[in-house]
Amino acid sequence: MSDPPPRPPSTPRAGLFRRIYLTFILTVVGFAALVALAVLSLSDHYDAAWVEAVDVAVAAREDELARALADPPALARLLQTLAAELDLRVAVRDPEGNHLAGDPETRTPRGRGGRGGRNPRHLARLQRGEPIVQRGDRDPALAFGIFAADGTLAAVLNLDTGDRGAARTRQLALALLGLLLALALGAWPLARSLTRRLARLEQGAGRIAAGELGHRVPADHDGDELERLGHAFNDMAAQLEAMLRGQRALLTNVSHELRTPVARMRVLVELLGERLAGAPDPEHPVAVRLRRGIGELAEDLLELEGLISDLLTSGRLDLAGGPALQRTRAELLPLLTRVGARVGARVRCDPDLVAEVDLVLVERLLANLLHNARRACPEGQVDLTAAREGAALVLAVEDEGPGIAPADRAQIFDPFTRLDAARARDQGGVGLGLYLCRQIAQAHGGTICAEDRRDGARGARLAVWLPLAADPSPPHPTAAAP
């Protein structure tokens, strides 16, 4: 049993881990402190001990309050003293709830049966000498009975805390808002840094996945975990680029080395053909079979030469890219006429249409498209058109063949891809022609696609979009040369 693969060395916890961990801890601690503050603020005021203290202070002045009922100025002064002593709002009302003295804004305990002294249950408790304490959403309101000399309820003393409870509530709300704002401001740089760098990694990974193996994600060598992830992406892209470049270079070199033996074989085939032509009996069955075999061998060698040429051109575009183009500003009609005549295609092009392209590569592109179109419809009509559409040059080849299914229109431009109807060996092609067309179009900054014919007829349309020439100088005089 083989040993398991070695585990990669563990990565020490860096700045990103600490930032996330400390942000979480500080958030929890901050909210815990806020909850504790709220509990203390609501529980350490106006409890039973406070009510007992107020009851004692009121009981100490009960007789004085009863005597002052007959003297309104003295009652007012006494209520001011009591309010200052207890730090409360104080008012005196009669048993029916009518204001007699003190602060008229002082609240009275409310009940189901009415307001203040009008509540029968409150009146009964006050007549028994029991204070009334009511707690609700606001701070408590208290009521004490003031009795006459004969023991009857003469008035009601009301006390409350005023607006201090609402002020405390506002302060608590402001404290909560301040803490949330501080937490938001503290977490914003972390969240923004994470999302920005993750978006940068996502964009870089997408470009690498799309084939831009030369793209690198910006990353700091001394950064945190995300920076190291960016370096890992860059290393992966570099290794993939080196591997693919090595494979392409090997394929290009092998293809180049095959040209010499193929050329020798073609020379040998031509010599054998000449010898057979000068044979004493050219119609002898053996001579006929040899002549037919030599002809098939010549066709195979011609196809092999085309494959080698495609591989060399593809390797040149892969390894060199855009700088490998030899652009020439030229009129397109002579080029299209010459290429279309090879397969009997009908050419439609404006005589004054000019583009700045690599003439050799564009001719190769059109030759591949026309060859495929003629193979799809040996007896039908093939059209080659060139037109200006906005700032682009559109080269299109249309045929009357069976067409291309929508599901196959993207994959036909992949290397070594052939549709089911074209996989028979006697129909030729190894699946490099359209791939090379896509490479040539992309090297010019354009695109290529397969679509339905514009007139709705049966067949296929392959269109190439290339940028037009922007230089108004006269066209190259050798544009019509082979």
What would you say this structure looks like, in words?
There is one protein chain. The protein is of the alpha+beta class and 482 residues long. It has 4 domains: 15-43 and 167-209; 48-160, 2-Layer Sandwich (Beta-Lactamase); 225-316, Signal transduction histidine kinase, dimerisation/phosphotransfer (DHp) domain (Helix Hairpins), CATH 1.10.287; 325-467, Histidine kinase-like ATPase, C-terminal domain (Heat Shock Protein 90), CATH 3.30.565. Helix content is 51%, strand content 15%. The chain is built from 11 helices and 14 strands. It has helices at residues 15-43, 48-60, 62-68, 72-86, 120-127, 164-209, 225-277, 285-320, 333-341, 359-376, 433-443; strands at residues 89-93, 99-102, 110-111, 114-115, 132-134, 141-147, 153-160, 327-331, 346-349, 354-358, 383-389, 392-398, 447-451, 461-467. A hairpin with a 5-residue loop joins strand 6 (141-147) and strand 7. Helix 8 runs parallel beside helix 11. The longest helix is centred in the middle third of the chain and has 53 residues, at 225-277. The chain is rod-shaped and about 165 Å long. 22% of the residues are buried. Residues 1-13, 112-117, 421-426 and 470-482 have low confidence and may be disordered.
Going by CATH, what is the homologous superfamily of the largest domain?
Answer: Histidine kinase-like ATPase, C-terminal domain
How many structural units, i.e. domains? 4
Task: Kindly provide the name of the CATH class of the largest domain.
Answer: Alpha Beta
Q: Structural class, from secondary structure content?
A: alpha+beta
- What percentage of the residues does DSSP assign to strands (E)? 5-15%
Report the average pLDDT across residues. 77
Strand order within the widest beta sheet = 2-1-7-6-5
How many β strands by DSSP?
14
| Rg of Cα set | 49 Å
Global geometry:
rod-shaped
Helix content: 40-55%
CATH topology of the largest domain: Heat Shock Protein 90
Order of helices and strands: HHHHEEEEHEEEHHHEHEEHEEHEE
Poorly predicted spans: 1-13, 112-117, 421-426, 470-482
In whole angstroms, the N-to-C terminal distance is: 66 Å
Task: Please give the CATH architecture of the largest domain.
Answer: 2-Layer Sandwich
SS element count, helices: 11
Mind summarizing the main beta sheet? Answer: 5 strands, antiparallel
